[in-house]
Write a structure and sequence with these properties.
It is a single chain. The chain is of the alpha+beta class. The strands form 3 sheets. A 4-stranded antiparallel beta sheet has the order 2-1-5-6, with no helix packed on it. A 4-stranded antiparallel beta sheet has the order 3-10-7-4, with no helix packed on it. A two-stranded antiparallel ribbon has the order 8-9. It is elongated.
Length: 201
């Protein structure tokens, strides 16, 4: 069985020779013929042809059989406790297409044999050009980086390391921890010992 996967209106359909498909409404009259060019895949028995994304040189011919409306859909909206009720109906417009014929995919073997030597020549030309262009470009940025790295960072590190951290560490280490430890160690244990001796007596 021969069939094709075609695209119409952003949707994909399975088209079988002698069968029909229902697509979104098309601007054509009944009896008009059209060719569907968006063919994504073709299956002929055990031969599968998959496009990238489309199969080149392949068309599916169809005839407009009828225009019709789909089933009625009721759209009901409401907001609870707000006295809001809205009821609408909708019927989608469709077109029925009768598939007449599925074309054959074009051969790709001849095209691949001709394009192969052209690709090799381009790669050789690209390999030769970047080698000459890279030599002068690598010399200039190296010289600029060494000058900036030698002057600016060395001066900033010595100033910050010498002045700020040394002053802060000596002040905090000398004043705060020593005063707190001596006060707590001296007061609390002495008060507890005196209360115990009073109870024993």
């Amino acid at each position: 069985m021969k069939y094709a996967i075609v695209e119409s209106g952003g949707k994909q359909y399975k088209a079988v020779e002698g069968g029909t498909i229902e697509v979104d409404r098309l601007a054509l009259e009944e009896g008009d013929k059209l060719d569907i060019e968006r063919v994504l895949m073709v299956v002929d028995g055990e031969i599968y042809t998959v496009g990238t994304p489309e199969v080149d040189g392949l068309k599916v011919s169809a005839t407009v059989a009828a225009h019709f409306k789909g089933p009625k859909i009721i759209v009901f909206k409401y907001h609870p406790k707000k006295r809001y009720r809205l009821k609408k109906g909708h019927r989608q417009q469709y077109t029925r297409l009768a598939i007449n014929e599925i074309g054959k995919a074009a051969a790709k073997k001849v095209a691949t044999a001709e394009t192969a030597p052209v690709i090799e020549e381009k790669t050789e030309a690209k390999a030769a050009k970047p080698a000459t262009a890279k030599k002068p470009a690598t010399k200039k940025p190296v010289a600029e980086k060494t000058e900036t790295a030698a002057k600016k960072p060395a001066a900033k590190k010595t100033e910050t390391a010498a002045k700020k951290p040394a002053v802060k560490k000596t002040e905090t280490a000398a004043k705060k921890p020593a005063a707190k430890k001596t006060e707590t160690a001296a007061k609390k244990p002495a008060a507890k010992k005196t209360t115990k001796t009073a109870k024993e007596e």
